[in-house]
Amino acid sequence: MSQKKIRILVAASDRKRAGGAQTYSFREAQEERAWNRFPSITSARDEAVREFLSAINGQGHGEEVLRLAGGRLARATQKNLAFRHGGLLPVLERERGPLFSALEALPPGVTRRLMDDMIVVCPLLGILAPTDMVPEYRCPVGAQIPGWGSLHTHWKKHLGPVLTRLCRNRRVFSFLPNRLRALWAPGGSVGEFITIQFATRRNDGGLRIENAGAGKLAGAMIRAMFDEDLTDPSRLQAWQGYSGHAYSAVHSERSEGRWSMVFVR
What pTM was computed for the model? Predict the structure, then answer.
């Protein structure tokens, strides 16, 4: 079995599970280490949430910030304005969508490893552990806040040192889209950095990188990495997706400590 310590980076989903316990507010939960694994970014989270909520409420920029209109805007705004005192759930329960659905009902031992090794990159809250307690909210990647700037720029200033520490001497698997991957440039202290992409062959022989559906593939691959001990990228090459995706050496790139792995159908 592969014994090298790993990190798995995934993006937060647009879909969130509703509900949660209201025993504590989000701000109170931030004071508990068991519910906030990354306290060094608490003040940066406070700033991001404050500016975000101010823009969509008092300043009336909801449509611009959330990139929604009509009933969808009204529902998202209502959820966000309940952020500070809304019910809380652990991130792994709060997140919905294809990737996280594929990680449900895991064996207890696999779940424990996932809790330790996975980091969720979130446009509003920076980075989250699967056990961190969060309310329901809606925030698009790269949201622009008039008069303040983009959340992407805000987090790029704060996440580098934290991710460098968390990934030191680890084998890191990144399932992040390009926009979120750009928040952090792994340095020499990272043991290995492996990016995962899924693609479809076009009629002209080129590749179309998949966005829609890639979450489900990523979830299936992450599950297999733990279930089948595929956390060594050399073994991961043998993985095949439910839709026919298989590793393509021709389209992948490998250099010292870096490996861009592309799975094609």
Answer: 0.93
